Model the fold of this input.
Amino acid sequence: MRDGSSEPGRIDSQSELAPPVSEKPRHLEIRLVAREQILRESLYESLAKAVLESHSVRASAGEPRRILDVGCGRGELLRLLAAKGHEAVGVDSEPACVEASSRYARCVSGRLEDLPRLFCRGQFDVIVLSHVLEHLPRPLDALGVLSDMGADCYVVAVPNLHRVSRLVRAVFGSARADHPAHLYGWGRAEFEALLGEAGFSVTSWHADRVTLNPFGGSLGALASGALRPLETRLLPLLFPLVASSLIATCRPTESGAGD
Done:
């Protein structure tokens, strides 16, 4: 730990918030199929928009920001932010992800509970945690670690349980799980309640993509490409509550600031 102002004691060093660095998560695939790559692009573009539109008391509009991407994966968001001149840093527990992300920005190996050891409190203007919470056995504790890092703003994203594809499956009686590694799921109201319990106040919501195309393979990739203007522009404006992801820009409340 680099200073004594944070409280890593929220979770112990043997916490199960994330797998050990030496253990490859079973859900990880470094190479994405074409359709998944297209859908992921919409997520990262929306995350970048949320980060760049967030308010920071330490960085004026248009100035470079210091941004930490926790669980940065393949580095897609780091690439977008670094290309716009921002000081983006990634952290991930998977060595292959650290290697892939390091092509775009500085990336270090570590787990979420390692943040107080790896970085100083207040070092970043914005901290991003995207599609990580649903994998963690104690998401409330994980959000507490983020809050203790003392950023001005946080962008937190999770899969939306009310997205179109899941609602269609429910209508037709499918009990298929979203993903075998997902331990939790939220709609917008429930996710906002979780953030509030963790001491965050949501300042804005962002929708990535309302996906109508049910096809996979090369046909699905072609359809997703053709439907992009509809699925990423018009439908998220009209029906944000059924977008693929819930993306919340939030700030610590006074009582949850951890100072």
Summary: The radius of gyration is 18 Å. The CA atoms of residues 95 and 109 lie 7 Å apart.
